[in-house]
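Q: My collaborator sent me two sequences in one message, no labels, and asked for predicted structures for both. Can we handle them in order? The first one she listed is below.
A: Yes, handling them in the order given. First sequence, followed by its structure tokens:
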Amino acid sequence: MSITMVLSSQTKPVMASSNKTRNNFSSNNHPVCTRTNQILALILITTTFFLTRTFNQYCPNNYSSSFINKSSSQDLYFINNGWPNRGFGNQLSLKIYVYEENEIDGLKELMYGRDGQITVDSCLKGQWGTQVKMHQMLLKSRFRTLKKEEADLFFVPTYVKCVRMMGGLTDKEINSTYVKEFYNPELGSRIPAAFDSRFSFLFSGAGAHIFRSWPKFLNRSIILTPEGDRTDKRDTSAFNTWKDIIIPGNVDDSMTRYGASLVEPLPLSKRKFLANFLGRVQGKVGRVELVELAKNFPSKLESPELKLSGSEKLGRKEYFEHLRNAKFCLAPRGESSWTLRFYESFFVECVPVILSDQVELPFQDVVDYSQISIKWPSTHIGPQLLDYLESIPDKEIDAMIARGRQVRCLYAYAPETEPCSAFVGILWELQRKVRQFHQSAETFWFHNGSIINRNLVQFHKWKPPMPLP
């Protein structure tokens, strides 16, 4: 809603003999436009203009107007403006069908394990919590539809990373259960996920490789994952920019929620270390180098090897208290290119330093990461890195932290009602994947719109394996 005042005026030549005209106006009881009237009118117009701007700012007339600023390529993030209309559209307009757990054979096992003993609450914790959070938010979303025929996208929920980590299914069981979910040799495809780019799956750890037959059954589906690694150890990346979406990792809710967080940031002047790395080494080259560097420069770099259990294991609060005690939080590569510390650093207001050459980051069409983080070559981990970080004035560090403070809401899995959250950002990314027409090197079509494969077989008769698009 906005208040609009339209002023229309016609200007006519004023002659010396216009006194008679003025007298006629007066005689007809029309008010004379005095200098005072003009000043009052100007004040009214000015007041109306500013009231309208203020009212529109706090009462946006569509959902998109309260997201990302698009007024300047130099602007990073301002809450009360719109997401850039750069292939996204100017407002969210999606219909997503969410499969029920009893709707597909095998789906319950992928959510709760073979015995159904894995709980939803236990899967909310840790890096894999995104699988549960996205599912729960989609179930409550105003963009959810219960009608398959009107859906733009189909979401198939699984908590498979959590189920695997908690012993609910083995790798072999995960693969066979997924296969059973998608394909029955006698009945054919249960859901056409491998062939239909409208289907989306979320893998919050190990990427789609946790289901080793993904190239056969999910090669056209949209994969939501923090694992944007194109150089993984299987030499076949499960991430494809043609169809997939990088999502933020799952930062502990106690640090991202509105109001008081578990641990508050420290002023730069009170931080003990220049930089830190808080993670398990696991024999990874970059991490080993950081531990050795910390031994040589203990006053500058804190890098204890974190333990999984025992008296040396850091509690949740202790971990974040350590993380906030440095100006720079180092984020080296682990099993794959991404690390949760990159996202956690924004909530303790520590500038993240990426030491992972192949990393892919979420919302790269919206966020200018060079303004809020540093990316340093992993081949140059050593004293040179510490010298560089030490050369950056606190004034510039503060400026980077302030810009990071503006965008960090995009890394929090807050409800859809919040104007800025990872969930809403992912919805925008999904919207850009919704196309009226999908084509690749392995899709063809007839004059009547029927989609066929290279052997002229129509879509509903396709059988795996299919070549990648």
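Q: And the one she listed second?
A: Here it is, processed independently of the first:
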Amino acid sequence: MKKANSDDILHRNSVPILAWDFHYEYINELKAIFADLKKVNKISNQFTWNEKDLEIEERLKDEVVVITDLDLKIVFASNGIKRMTGYSEFEVLGKSPRMFQGPETSKTVLEEIKAAIKLQIPFEKTLQNYRKDGRSYKCKINGAPVFNLKGKLTHFIAFEKEVA
């Protein structure tokens, strides 16, 4: 029987450090998605949403999810908000999504969004928004009213993603 030397043992059981870095990032991303989902489920259960068409769980992976109350104050923002805007969830809670708007934000598109909200209908618009550091970015927003199981409007939800 061949005796294994210490170099063989070291190489057989080692993983490149870079692989651990990717693994660590992936695990942290999964934790963030799970935490976001838990928070959204808490809101959903509290207000007994009819969430079958929202597909929140799937969309949390690739998009920023922002939920506002009926006064359009942010009550939830997924962890991706920091990556897209530079603001943490805690910095945006209680504020209006208007905080992301600036000089190049289209007034026409804002009026169209306002009309859709007033009519309680879904909308999809692309808007010039601004990060915390003042740089602008194009944001595709898929917004919708959220109703409870009795058909009463309780919140608005927006699925947002930066586009080129």
